[in-house]
Amino acid sequence: MDKSLIHIDLKKDLYKVLLGFFIDQKINYSYIVSAAQYTSTTYVEEMLFEEVAPVYYSYFRNILSSAWVDLDREILWKNIREYEEKCNKKFSFYKIRHKYLVYYLRKKYQRQWMELKKQLEALKYYRKAKNMEGKVYTDIDLCESLSDIFTDSETDFIYIAPVSNRFPIEHVKKVYFEWVAPVCYPNLCSPIPPIWMGFDRDELWEDIQQYKAKNSNLDSFGKKMHKWSLFYLRNTYIVKSQWKELEKYMNTYKNNNDSL
Question: What is the pTM assigned to this prediction?
C-alpha cells in the first residue's frame, strides 16, 4: 500500500481519538497517549489545536459526549479538509475566525495539553531509556547528543536526556558548558546556521579536543580571559535556558527507567 495512504489512514484514526480531548469532562489521557505515542508531540499539538479543535469544539458543546463514538472518521476527515479550504482562501472570514479561535482554545486547554504532552514525552523517554539498557556510553556519545541543542532545529530532549542520565549530573554540566557549548554555540550565531541536521560525530570530537588542548596551555592572563568567556557563554539566554530544560527532563525521569 502507498505510504501516503497509510499516513492518511493513521491520521484519520488520530483525529477521532483527539476529539476526546474536548468532549469528556475527564480526559482519558492514557487512551490518547496510546494512539499518539509514535507521532511527534509537536505534530499532535498542531493536529489538536489547528485542525480538530476549530472544527469540532463548538459542535460538541451542546450534545452528548458519547456522540463522538458514532462519528464516522471519513466524515470527520471530510469536515476538517473542507474547513481548511475555507481558511486558505485569500480573503476569508474563516481565516480570521480560525486565528482567534485557536488562540482561545490554546489558552482554555493549556493545562490539559501540558498534561497530555508530559505523558506523551514520558512514554517516549522511557522507551528510549529502555532501549539503551546494557549499552556502554562514553564522552563522545554525550558530546554528540548535547550538540543537538545547538543545531537549527527543534531540540529533542527525549533523545538527549536518556544519554545524559548515563553520566553523573556534574559531569554532564561540565561537558555541556565547558566543552560542547564553546565549540557548537557559534553555529547559532550565524543568520542562517549552517548545521541544522546535526554535527558530524568525529569532527565534533576532534574540535572539542583541539579546543581543550588550546586552552590548557594558556598563561595566567589567558586563563582569566577564558574563564570570563565561559562565564559569559554560560549566561547567554540560549545556553542557560536549554540547560534548564535538559536538567528538568533528567531530574523528572532519571529514576523511572523501569516504568515500562
Answer: 0.61
